[in-house]
Amino acid sequence: MKWTALVPALAAMPILATPATAQLGTSNSTAATLHSADDTAGCTNRQHALEERVKSCETTIKEGHFSFVLQLASLQRIAGQYDASLASIARYTDRLADIPTTYASTNSKDWIVALQVRSETYAQMGRFEDARRDGEEIAGISVDGAGADNSQCWLRAVAGKELEQALDFCNKAVARKPEIGAYLDSRGLVYFKMGRFQDALNDYNAAIDKNSDANASRYARGVVKLRLGDKDGGQKDIDDAKERDVIVAQEMAGRGVAP
Question: Left if phi > 0, otherwise alpha if psi is -120 to 50, otherwise beta: which for 198?
């Protein structure tokens, strides 16, 4: 599988001077990479502004640390630089080996992470059919059924499309692996988009209980509390999340979560 064959337009995009993980921004699917444990690197330093992180990532990649290209793509998406984000993803996948597209493979991990990043970029761009196609690709090549279900849920939640179907996917993911807080975070976003704020609050509480470093969940929980009338509690969560990571509000605004 090579995306230059799937989407020829990406190959023609200019590549800007610009570590894949199981959940990368996000995310939930992208959030894990954006909030990497290695905060000594400029592009993962939570106290650096978005523009500074982008520049640091570009420098890091120029110095030979190519694994940060998807990190850069996620930051570019947060900055609203969607074409640059897609170009960075294409730059990353150009280095990946072809893999079968007709069955699940343990060799597909890097492709899955890249597809997760790209599907969220498409979802935020309003290119839902492209995002959904990436989700279907993940389902076809992943050996992790729960992770694939979560990806299908997440892209719909971010896009605000097919929310009932998104909820079904998230319910499957949570049922398969209830210990994974990121899946609860995904379902929390679905509930938020549905206006089911108490259900969203329950899932965000559970996600944070399972992972106290789930900063995007903390910010979203604050927004949900505000919607439920808990002004003090909501503002505290939002302030705490912004203190932990100065770009979390920008990150979540792209997903449609804002006070």
Answer: alpha
Rounded-to-5 percentages of helix, strand, coil across the chain: 70, 0, 30
What residues pair up with 26 in beta bridges, in sequence order?
A: 29
- Token pair listed for 61: 């990649």
Q: From CA 190, how far away is CA 212, in angstroms rounded?
A: 21
CB-facing half-sphere around the CA of 193: CA atoms within 13 A:
24
């997440």: which residue's tokens?
154
Which residue, 109, 148, 140, is CA-closest to 21? 109
Q: In whole angstroms, what separates CA 239 from the centre of its chain?
A: 21
Contact 154, 67 (CB under 8 A): no
Which residue's entry shows tokens 């007709």? 102
What is the tens place of the pLDDT at every residue in 15-56? 332 223 333 333 464 444 444 434 336 788 889 999 999 999
> Which residues contact residue 19 at a Cβ distance below 8 angstroms, ignoring those fewer than 6 apart?
33, 36, 67, 68, 70, 71
Tell me the one-letter amino acid at 33.
T
Q: Under CATH, which number does the domain 11-253 receive?
A: 1.25.40.10
- β-partners of residue 30 are 25
116 within 8 A of 149, measured Cβ to Cβ: no
Assigned token pair, 147? 């992770």
φ/ψ of residue 246, rounded to 5: -70, -15
Task: Determine the pLDDT at residue 20.
Answer: 32
